[in-house]
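User: I'm curious what two different proteins look like when written out as structure tokens. Can you demonstrate?

Assistant: Sure. I'll show them one after the other, since each token string lines up with its own sequence. Here's the first protein:
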Amino acid sequence: MGTGWLGVNGPVAVSAAPPRRKLLDQLRDTLRSRHYSRRTELTYCLWVRRFIYFHRLRHPAEMAEREINAFLTHLAFEDKVSASTQNQALSALLFLYRHVLAHEIGDLGEVIRARKPRRLPVVMTREEQGPCSVISGVTSG
């Protein structure tokens, strides 16, 4: 550290190191440097912010697999989000830990996964198909 301009009480110490950037700014910079879309950037920042608030403003560097597991389980069990939404939150957190914090995430253990809806096939009767089915060559049964 050196001395800078004179203050009221003498020289003021000036730090040579730049101030640390905020976590979400670091996340944005990393996403932009990897050419992620603006929408992905906004979405990942939202998920990281929700993760931090879920854990009462603890910094993600202080947390690991157990807290990620708790957050994802909360999304599925309490918030009842879809499977794709839960996967999006997981992707955002994995990106944060791998590329911003340089911390590899291990096994997440027993994450309660959101269930994908079962798709039932749509079966139409001949009456529902109408005369178009004869013209187009669609047959049933």
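Here's a second, unrelated protein for contrast:
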Amino acid sequence: MNEDNHIVKSYGEELQLLTDSIIQMGSLTESLMLDSIKAITIIDKEAVGRIVESDKKINQYRSKIDTQIMTILVKRAPMAIDLRVAITALRISQDLERIGDLAKGNAKKILPWPENLPEELLKSFNRLGSLVSEQLNKVIDSYIKKSKDIAIEVIHADGNVNDLAYSSIKEALSFLSKDIKHLEFATNLLFVGKNLERAGDHITRIAENIYYLAEGEYYKNK
């Protein structure tokens, strides 16, 4: 009886450690996204190196989580809710890693920028980045609380991210049209907008997986 209790406790601890790793990875990714947006908004080129190093930590978490999941699958052969915990952890860690890559890539895009880009142009990308960061914060909160309702809110708000991305990209194209010398800067701005939109898509996928974790079925848009 004591041995069985020890096994159950150990299994529960493994699942909790996996959940904790996802939360920690999510927190690091959120911080990286905020740092990236700040660097873009104020064209802080010195921050790029720090952002690249932070992304390496996120990648390390992904490797750690892969190992944790493999251990659980091989040792425990989980079923039902426990299997969903492992499956969603794998999927969410993949999306978090990709969000980190996109945030890092965006920060590197500012390196050739001049210091005097139009303030309104940068504000447009700051609005987009702030919304993406807010979405990321909410989806991590949803995972912590295992809240399908917060997950649904995140899914529904993805359209707002797409709208702001379209608006930001439109402003970058307008900036480009005024002077061909702006080509390199504007092209990088286009990539920043598109990368933020992609990050929003990954956040939506995380929310969909949290819904699956909570409900045992995938969310269907009504």
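A detail about the second structure: Helices lie at 2-42, 47-76, 80-109, 119-145, 148-178, 183-215.
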